[in-house]
């Protein structure tokens, strides 16, 4: 005994008697049937087919009516019983037998009956040789009406923005039902649906349509009371609305130097409502001004010192659109005070955010355009309660820098809030970026310079520069800067030889713009040394000349001269003994004032006869209260008068004593009579005193080691003393 198409591992055969056997098979999959073969001892082959299947598994019986004259019931068919050949499923619906109510997996039955209010019960039985299942449903068919599709749909009273639709019902009983109908309107890739209600509804009015536009419509309906499901759709109906004036333009402005560019977006096909013939721009400058255009921008030379209201409208064969107003702000410091920041998109989307402004009564306006080349200006209007925007990526190009401005929309002129430099996507900068790249030797350094990089060649934000230099020996060094405005880099302390310099720009996407030059570093030349020494020598000469030129002023400020004391008075009438540096003889001046009396003292042991030695006579020169010339008041001199009497006794020490008021210094100037008087002389000119001091200083230098003030003895004669 064996089974076709099954291996022996799943089979188990048992002999019951000589002529009876049992076979057990564990099935992994269920098929329609299995063929069993038997072979007897004579070699004859016999067999049979075993059918494997399931009882019916149908469920969810639902009954409804469409024509209000019959009941149509449907249910979900269960799994396949695999007994279609030997034992197909038979259905009984309310006692009536149906052989094949299911087709292509859909099971339904239709039974004529009187449909009126009231609940009814429907019974369905499904049966085969392995078993059966019974399904039940109860409902009032007047609450389960599945309407047929409307007939004869047509458009009537077609206007520019509204039309009337009509349709018919083939069943008279539909006219007595409260209906709700859906009208689906489709134009291009846009679809909208509206609902309408009414008793036996057979018409609807569509409003808010686009003028001069083609539409497709269709209708389906259902019962308004006890809604069961939507009926079938009608056929499509196509119509075209009438034309109208264009829609209001979306207007914006940009200020460029002394001109204002008024821009407006091109009307879409759904906004033109006909063929556009042109545009009209009007503004007021004391007198109304108008200008026509067939493009989408106009440059106006307006007074930037005040605001201007500009109106723009479009016209077609049906008329002119309502004007769009834009107020151009006057020139002010607000725009220049706004700083510019940088932003880069992610995943090819440029997202912006900004701080809200209380001035934005009608929202915000974001505009953008290429920063370095001519390109379209685009803008986006944002509602007042939003402070974010995503720029459409179909208007932005990767690797191109854009200038983005954010304005507050107000009742008056727009107010600039923020500015951005933006890339939707930064790209690698191409090699050969740096123009005019040169190398200049400076002692043992090499200064590499280049021209500023134009913005049009920057496909990413430059954050700095790096200079890589390689010597003949293969050593590689780098120097860098994080200043994006830099135009020089210095390679320091280089050895003599040839170097290769490679300059690159640093960006968020890596280094780029590599540019390479070669340069040879030479030892310093004698000419360079001489030139350097010459520059230093000339600088020193210039400093010396300036110091010499202004030496008197410098000396007066830094080290002012201290004048030495000068005495310009006469000491004796004739001959004169003067104190060097202090006394100037003024014998001819009769206006002398007696200041003090000089006394002559004879030293003990001095011979009474003959003459007195000069060494034994001392002269004390008194210092007056004007004794020193300090640059403010002149020094009064001392005039000694001739003897006024005889000397009664010469046995005493003939010394003249007086006290120096400045320091108590006694100055011996030789013999003086006892009764001499001290007078003050008249001050003389300072220049004459200085000339006399020069002559006296020659003899005074010999005695300055012993005396603070040295007397000149050549001007003093020892008097002849007679005996008493």
From TrEMBL:
- Keyword field: Disulfide bond, Glycoprotein, Membrane, Receptor, Repeat, Signal, Transmembrane, Transmembrane helix
Identify the CDD domains for this entry.
FN3
Can you list the GO cellular component terms from the UniProt entry? plasma membrane
The entry's localization annotation reads: Membrane
Report TM segments. Answer: 528-548
Domain Fibronectin type-III, by residue range, is: 149-244, 245-334, 430-525
Q: Spell out the PANTHER family in the cross-references.
A: INTERLEUKIN-27 RECEPTOR SUBUNIT ALPHA
Recorded family membership: Belongs to the type I cytokine receptor family. Type 2 subfamily.
Instruction: Give the protein's recorded name.
Output: Oncostatin-M-specific receptor subunit beta-like
Give the principal location in a single coarse category.
membrane
Does the entry feature the keyword Repeat, yes or no?
Answer: yes
What organism does the UniProt record list as the source? Answer: Kryptolebias marmoratus (Mangrove killifish)
Q: Region Disordered: start and end of each range?
A: 651-705
Q: Name one GO molecular function term.
A: cytokine receptor activity
- Cite the record's Basic and acidic residues compositional bias ranges: 691-705
Q: How does it sit in the membrane?
A: Single-pass type I membrane protein
**Cleavable signal peptide:** none
